[in-house]
Amino acid sequence: MSRPQPISSALAVSGPRRPPPERVTGIVAWLRTNLFNNMQNSVMTLLAVWALLVTLPGFVNWAVIEAVWITDDSRVCRAAAGACWAVITEKHRVMLFGTFPYDEHWRGVLVIAIVIGLSIFSAFKRFWSYWLFAGWIVAMVIILVLQLGGVFGLKETGTHDWGGLPLTLILFVGTVVGGLPMAVFLALGRRSDLPVIKSLCIGMIEITRGVPLITVLFMASLMFPLFVPEELTIDKVLRAQIAMMLFFGAYAAEIVRGGLQAIPRGQYEAADAAGLTYWQKTRKIILPQALRIVIPALMNDIIRAFKNTTFVSIIGLFDVFGATATALEDPLWVLYAPEAYMFIFLLYFCFCFSMAKYSEHIERDLAKGRNF
Amino acid sequence: MSFDGLWHNVGFRSFLYQILVIVVVVGTAIYMIGNAQVAMEKRGIATGFGFLTEEASFAIGETLISYDSSDTNIRAYMVAVSNTFKVSVVSVIGATVLGVLIGIARLSSNFLIFKFASFYIQLFRNTPQLVQIIFWYTLVIRLPHPKQAWSIYDWVFISNRGLIMAWPADNVAYAWVGLAFIIALGSAYGVVRWADARRRRTGRTLSVLWWNVGLVIGLPLLTWFALGSPTEMELPVFKAFNFTGGISLSPEFLALLLGLSLYIAAFIAEIVRSGIQAVSRGQIEAARSVGLGRIDLYMKVILPQALRVIVPPATAQYVSLTKNSSLGVAIGYPELFNVNNTITTLSGNTIECIGIMMAIYLSISFTISVIMNLYNRAVQIKEH
Prior knowledge:
The structure holds two protein chains of two kinds.
Chain A: H1 9-14, H2 26-34, H3 39-65, H4 74-79, H5 86-97, H6 105-122, H7 130-148, H8 164-190, H9 195-210, H10 213-227, H11 236-262, H12 265-273, H13 278-308, H14 320-327, H15 337-367
Helix pairs in contact in A: 5-8, 5-14, 6-7, 6-8, 7-8, 8-9, 8-11, 8-14, 9-11, 10-11, 11-13, 12-13, 13-15, 14-15
Chain B: H1 3-7, H2 10-43, H3 73-105, H4 111-125, H5 129-140, E1 150-152, E2 156-159, E3 162-165, E4 167-168, H6 171-202, H7 209-226, E5 233-234, E6 237-239, E7 242-244, E8 247-249, H8 251-278, H9 281-289, H10 294-324, H11 336-347, H12 350-379
Antiparallel strand pairs in B: 1-2, 2-3, 3-8, 4-5, 6-7
Helix pairs in contact in B: 3-8, 3-11, 4-8, 5-8, 6-7, 8-10, 10-12, 11-12
């Protein structure tokens, strides 16, 4: 065994000089690790840059440089080589509020503000309580008053006048607020020990999930009126709303069921051992834990419910999308439908993207400290 | 037992509840059916399935099987279902190919590729499918007139009449070649299974790769030669106002195809990404340390485990795609929902028509989920 060498500076300089370490910061280093880290990636990068160079200038030219932004004369658009964004400024009132009386649009603006405001408020975990749920109920009442009118000196506007973004938001909120309790009951029913209730719930969930939403809406608008007494005519918007609730409820029920199954058996058994009744057990032990687990997955369904509100345009309601399609029937502006739809695209994207980002955040947040 | 004791008996109470539920459900059903009968009598709505064998007397824009307006309503339903299948199958293939590519791109270490994939996924997932379909339709019908159609070497023409492609003149021969290809694929799979079983039994490996390549290429090629090796292609030609010859895909079909496949591709991409990420690093490292090559690593370690995670949600997306092909009604593509609407209006048999349509959609969904469950059982981790 050799004696340990004393550490001396002579050792360090004895070998050949080593190159300095590679840079790990700065633009060059970033490019090297993210774009040119191997042969394959370098080729891909060059191809991607080439594709961008081919498409982007043309697009920018069309969308910005040659575009017409504001005009009330469609001939100006026809003369221009670029996009005609003027179709949006020209038609935005119809697109956003549908056939709602022009002078009453402020009521629609209020509805939009209430829904967005309360949604942002609900996003904070510290406000989650039964009061929040009550707040939504109160908000729904205010929204209904604003939309229906006829009281407090507001002009009466029936549901046939409803349209645009307020209608979209009302259908969305109604679907979620009404559909969630339904989903919970369906999920509980599906896991019930009572064979009749179990098979009823399974049948309901599976049949609804097995058909397209549009057929459920179609049934609600065409077939349902035949099945109720003639004196009882249920409003068209309400019928669509019920159909959307049912559809959302069936999908959400399967997610809630997943949450119920994820609760460890011990929780159920402990509740039984403590002598709680079925409803006490469900309300105080199972649901609070199960719902917490399924919130991220539910968010996906909630986002889908928002996107699915567009389907009501097929049965003749004027949600944002339906109202836009109507606005574009104007022969002067029909040519610029792609621009108008791009705007609608962006509008839906803003709503859905923020919900998706929120869902990612809440997923991380709720997963903290869970051990199953 | 006194009544009080009976009331506190769990079994008796649950029996009572269920009886109550049955009474309510059956009662509501009887009440509603009674209402429907009254309403239908008053409005003179026809009942029964007699209308199915009556003349349909309406035209359908595009048909896979022969049909004209003097055919029966049953035939019209068959045309509609075949159209639904046509657009769904092509869209499923498109969505899968694109989705897998974007899913892999999402895992790329290349910044640009990764960003592009994320952008695509966010954009298409967070906008309604119906808006997408209508948007593509407004673009497709704004393409140039057939006279100024964009063409690729006179083989493919793209115009506001849709996409027209050259097609083999001898259809029947190529159908046989296609069949031979499918049979060859099936037998190649059989050969692999047999070789695997033999290896397990005897311990001797047998490389079947080249045999299989030969089989898959050779059998269709042989069929082609046997049928006189037809090479003639039917080229589309512009005459007077429109194209003749070749096969054409209508603007409605194209818009629906784009709308269905681009939307679902975004979901498939996320599923593929999470599936690949679900394979734990330890598995990959273990495979490397026992000396598996790159191809074996992917084929025998990563893919089987990733597929187990990927297939169930992907199938759910395919079911959703098939159901959402009903959005074709918004742009006038004659799929099941659209044709059913026409038949409902013309015959007046509202309830029967909706019933038939629901039954067809349900059986499609159930068939796919049954196949899916069988597959799931086959790929589940088998612990001996």
